[in-house]
Write a structure and sequence with these properties.
Layout: E1 6-11, H1 18-24, E2 27-29, E3 32-35, E4 38-41, E5 62-65, H2 69-80, E6 85-90, H3 98-106, E7 114-119, H4 125-139, H5 144-154, E8 158-163, H6 167-172, H7 178-187, E9 190-196, E10 199-206, H8 209-221, E11 228-233, H9 240-250, E12 258-262, H10 264-271, E13 276-281
Parallel strand pairs: 1-2, 1-6, 6-7, 11-12
Antiparallel strand pairs: 3-4, 3-5, 8-9, 8-13, 9-10, 11-13
Length: about 290
């Protein structure tokens, strides 16, 4: 397949299949986990799981980071050698430094190339859908301006809800304040997490993981149509909970086939190993 003139760049928190990206000429900047002296690449290496120090705190000794600035600089230079139009469609700037690094790396090329950087204010499916739409438009000959206009409109149609029992991971990632995490462990509560203003935020709390899964299913049932739905699991392989949630969602009238996906480095680290979530693309507003 020949590469379109307008080139697309994204990051691995979009959960883009790397083989698909290579075939379509999409450049994927890989997030990484740096832990205990080792570096793991998102999409190439399985998520290594949270490190647990002697004190029992989750997430210590490592961090998730976007690709380094020099990788973005190299990628833009390479893309600019074959195209005048480049569109970078990246995970939320409030969650990842990918947008900031892309802007800095692209700055020397402005004026000689049309480089458009889109902060999707999403992660996961929200970015994946925009990248696929942008790639289709690029293959049809659309320029960077037209592609950016389209994807900025589509980003309003993606919704997400997650749940996790790993309150220490949620505290470490800033979704909960430390005091909230401590109190939540005492009360055995499970937060329901959504994406608000480009950030992961705990918007509701329930008293068990079973109730949390019911809330996720209720969330999916609120939509008139589900063009796409993905159940994300932080565990390396889908467990009984994620498979059950997918089956329940597939039974909803107007629902699409539900995919099961590993959540990728960013969401897995933020939610912890027990994290589970639902991401939906719907062209219809929520029902009353």
């Amino acid at each position: 397949m020949s590469k379109p003139n307008t080139r697309i760049l994204t990051d691995s928190a979009a959960l883009i299949d790397l083989q698909w990206a290579r075939e379509r000429g999409v450049t994927v900047m890989q997030h990484r986990v740096i832990r205990n002296g080792a570096t793991f690449l998102d999409g190439a290496d399985p998520w290594p799981g949270l490190a647990v120090p002697a004190q029992g705190g989750a997430g210590a000794g490592g961090r998730v980071d976007a690709a380094p600035l020099e990788d973005y600089e190299s990628a833009f230079q390479q893309l600019a050698s074959s195209s005048n139009d480049i569109v970078a469609i990246l995970s939320s700037a409030a969650m990842s430094p990918a947008v900031a690094r892309a802007r800095k790396a692209a700055a020397p090329l402005h004026g000689s190339r049309a480089i458009t950087i889109v902060d999707t204010r999403h992660v996961g499916l929200g970015v994946e859908i925009l990248v696929r739409a942008a790639t289709e438009l690029a293959e049809q000959g659309a320029d960077a301006e037209a592609i950016a206009l389209r994807v900025r409109g589509l980003r309003q149609r993606v919704y997400a809800a997650f749940a996790s029992e790993d309150l220490m991971a949620l505290s470490a990632s800033g979704i909960l304040r430390p005091a909230q995490g401590h109190l939540g462990r005492l009360l055995n509560v499970v937060p329901i997490i959504t994406i608000e203003d480009g950030r992961l935020a705990a918007t509701e709390k329930v008293r068990s993981i079973e109730r949390a899964l019911e809330r996720l299913c209720d969330f999916g049932a609120e939509f008139e149509t589900l063009e796409e739905a993905v159940v994300l699991h932080a565990a390396r392989e889908p467990d009984a909970r994620s498979r059950s949630l997918a089956r329940q969602l597939q039974a909803i009238p107007g629902g699409a086939d539900v995919r099961l996906r590993q959540a990728g480095y960013y969401l897995s680290e933020a939610l912890g190993p027990s994290g589970i979530g639902l991401m939906i693309y719907s062209s219809r507003v929520l029902t009353d």
